[in-house]
Amino acid sequence: MTTISLPPAARSRSGNRSRNRYVAGLRTWRGVTGLVLVGTVALAGLLAPWLTGADPDAQGPQALAAPSGAHPLGTDDIGRDLLSRVLHGILTDLSIILTAVPAGALTGAALALLAGTSRAADLVVQRLFDLVLSFPGLILGLAVTAILGPGRWPVVIIIALAEVPYFGRQLRAGVLVQREREYALAARVGGAGRARVLLRHVLPNAVDPLVVQGAVALSAGVFIEGALSFLGLGVRPPEPTLGSLISGSVAYLDTHPVLAAPLAVTTALVLGFTLLAEALNRGART
Questions:
Q1: Sign of the C-alpha dihedral, residues 113, 115, 118, 124?
Q2: Which of 96, 94, 97, 82 is nearest to 246 (CA)?
Q3: How high is the pLDDT of residue 221?
Q4: Cα gap 227→219, rounded to integer Å
Q5: What residue ranges are annotated as transmembrane (predicted)?
């Protein structure tokens, strides 16, 4: 029996329209500002070894030193170069969220596809999403670190778990809409099995909302990592992260305002991802 599907040209045009909408969104002031903020911060982190020759973990004789030629942002409370620690902290944060968010997206997508196979599976997956969402991010972090202890990988797991239900629900909603469209019905009438219709026809047309959710998740990932490290539940010292740098600088901000640099960088990163999410969302709706 012959399987009926969308012509390749039609699917190509649909994909091109989606890409064009996102590109148009990124060309707005929100998109450009977001790209500049995220790109500047990310580039600074990637170029950390070349932008500063100081060891981020090396302690010097002068604690809380003022900015100078040797230390452009001064030193922290135990004499470590602040600029070097901020730049390497950016690199640590990016490595964590760029591992955790795709892991959460893939897990959520897999569960959403599983939910689309039967009503029983859908019920189980939805209750699982509800269970994860019933725990605020920080409470979920406390629970995971109580079991695994603080560290880089527990933070990755926490961020991924926190994002699974959001990606899963976004994709599930798209699947529910797309599988009732004419092309999906035609494919089923033509003899295509449930899995084939889901993976070949429905999924490619249901993933668009995940692009916007990805930008939102990156912003949330920065916040979660910062909050956990601020509370001492994140990456273990002396490895720098933006959250741990903020935590260590709070007590000295009134006398050494330059120690607010990690907070400014974190704000720029979160704001950049948020603006990108808004730009992509506006582009998707046009």
A1: positive
A2: 82
A3: 94
A4: 13
A5: 29-51, 94-116, 128-147, 255-277
Separation between Cα atoms, residue 224 and residue 142, nearest integer Å: 11
Q: Which residue has the tokens 């026809």?
A: 201
pTM over 0.90: no
By residue range, what is the domain housing residue 180?
A: 16-54+81-285
Structure tokens at 114: 């599983």
Q: Which of 27-31, 70-74, 92-96, 206-210 has the lowest mean pLDDT?
A: 206-210
pLDDT digits (tens, 9 = 90+) for 118-159: 889 889 999 999 999 988 877 888 889 989 999 999 999 999
Backbone torsion region of residue 193, taken as left when φ is above 0, otherwise alpha when ψ lies between -120 and 50, otherwise beta: beta
Amino acid letter, residue 16 = N
| Environment class of 266 (CB within 10 Å of its CB; exposed 0-12, middle 13-18, buried 19+) | buried
Q: How many domains does the chain have?
A: 1
Return the closest-CA partner of residue 283 out of 18, 28, 22, 33: 22
Extract the tokens encoding 241. 């992260």
C-alpha distances out from residue 257 to 9, 220, 265, Å: 58, 26, 14
User: What's the number of CA atoms in the CB half-sphere (13 Å) around residue 2?
Assistant: 2
Indicate which CATH number applies to the domain containing 167: 1.10.3720.10
1 lies in some domain? no
Cβ contact 216:277 at 8 Å? yes
| Nearest Cα to Cα of residue 215 among 160, 159, 268, 272 | 272
